[in-house]
């Protein structure tokens, strides 16, 4: 098993574990937990994809790609749930990676993908996370 394959499997296992044990916040938003899901979940999925596409080109097997995208979408659903929003995420890891590269910001990329939290269009984009 390759190093990338191990990372994808670990990320998928973590996403499944977090998803199955998730307790929604009693008083949303729980921004701290949402950011953890972004950094430790979405960020890891995007990093695996970008590293595989920019270094020595790594080809994902069909099953690796399915696991990677399912994990990404599980993390995004958990992120949205921290704001009290239920979404059915079906984003590609490529579109998530492209938004991270374009915005230079994981939180802005998640907001553009999920529209969570609803963006205040009068405020400039943040540059944190």
Helix content: 55-70%
- Tally the structural domains: 1
Uncertain ranges:
none
Q: What count of helical segments does DSSP give?
A: 5
Coarse shape: globular
Order of helices and strands: HHHHH
Quaternary structure state of the chains depicted? single chain
> Number of DSSP strands?
0
Strand-residue proportion: under 5%
Textual characterization of the structure:
The protein has 129 residues and is mainly α. The chain has one domain (3-114). The protein is 64% helix and 0% strand. It has 5 helices and no strands. It has helices at residues 3-21, 31-54, 62-81, 93-103, 106-114.
Give a nutshell description of this structure.
The chain has 129 residues and is mainly α. The protein contains 5 helices and no strands.
Topology:
Blueprint (H helix, E strand, L loop, with lengths): L2 H19 L9 H24 L7 H20 L11 H11 L2 H9 L15
Helix pairs in contact: 1-2, 1-3, 2-3, 2-4, 4-5
């Amino acid at each position: 098993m390759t190093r990338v394959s191990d990372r994808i499997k670990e990320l998928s296992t973590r996403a499944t574990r977090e998803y199955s044990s998730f307790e929604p916040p009693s008083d949303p938003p729980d921004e701290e937990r949402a950011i953890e899901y972004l950094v430790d979940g979405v960020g890891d999925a995007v990093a695996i994809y970008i590293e595989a596409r920019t270094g020595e080109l790594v080809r994902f097997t069909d099953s690796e790609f399915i696991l990677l995208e399912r994990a990404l979408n599980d993390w995004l659903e958990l992120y949205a749930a921290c704001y009290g929003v239920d979404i059915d995420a079906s984003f590609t890891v490529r579109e998530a990676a492209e938004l991270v590269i374009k915005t230079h910001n994981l939180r802005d990329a998640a907001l553009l993908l999920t529209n969570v939290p609803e963006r205040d269009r009068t405020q400039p984009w943040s540059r944190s996370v």
